Amino acid sequence: MVTIETPRSPRSRKHAQWEKWGWLYMRYSGAVLLILIFGHIVINLLSGEGIKQIDFAFVAGKWASPFWQVYDVLMLWLALIHGTNGMRTIVNDYTERETVRKALNYTLWIVCGLLIVLGTLVCVTFDPCIDQAMRASLEVCKG
Length: 143
Ligand code: HEM
Hints:
By secondary structure, the chain is mainly α. It has a single domain (13-141), classed as Up-down Bundle (3 helical TM bundles of succinate and fumarate reductases), CATH 1.20.1300.10. The chain has helices spanning 13-46, 56-62, 66-94, 98-125, 132-137. Helix 1 packs across helix 3 (66-94) and helix 3 (66-94) runs antiparallel to helix 4 (98-125). Bound molecules: protoporphyrin IX containing FE. The site of protoporphyrin IX containing FE has 13 residues, from helix 1 and helix 3. Residues 26-27, 30, 33-34, 37, 79, 82-83, 86-87, 89-90 line the site of protoporphyrin IX containing FE.
């Protein structure tokens, strides 16, 4: 008789706790992402001149405000952790060899960490006025 293993069966009690937090994180982050992504699309693509308005000056203007910096960093962190944890679930469901499963999951979290660090640095250290030509032409640099 063929026995089919329970999907995502926890490897230990401690592991089961982690799976519970992961399961909850997917639901809560999904709900917050729905609001953040919808707001992002409305503000960037549906309001004003739509896609035509998106250029360097538009991004510079948005990131001059701490509100949009926090908004975009939050979206970045939530989506990257959500996507990586979702991929981890898929890897756990489909890989058969433990070494392959571990290698894929480590790679996923390392890439996620690097993207979070790089993306956050871009959002919080971005300074459009650093360039002389930009300083003269951008409204946000004249204040
Ligand atoms: C619009 C907001 C989003 C909502 C409401 C949402 C909701 C969810 C929920 C509830 C799950 C769990 C499904 C399950 O356990 O069966 C899930 C899984 C997943 N999500 Fe999202 N998500 C959103 C955005 C994203 C984004 C931006 C990414 C990519 C960066 C992503 C990638 C994934 C992946 C890879 C899975 C795993 C699929 C699986 O278990 O088969 N999601 N999502």
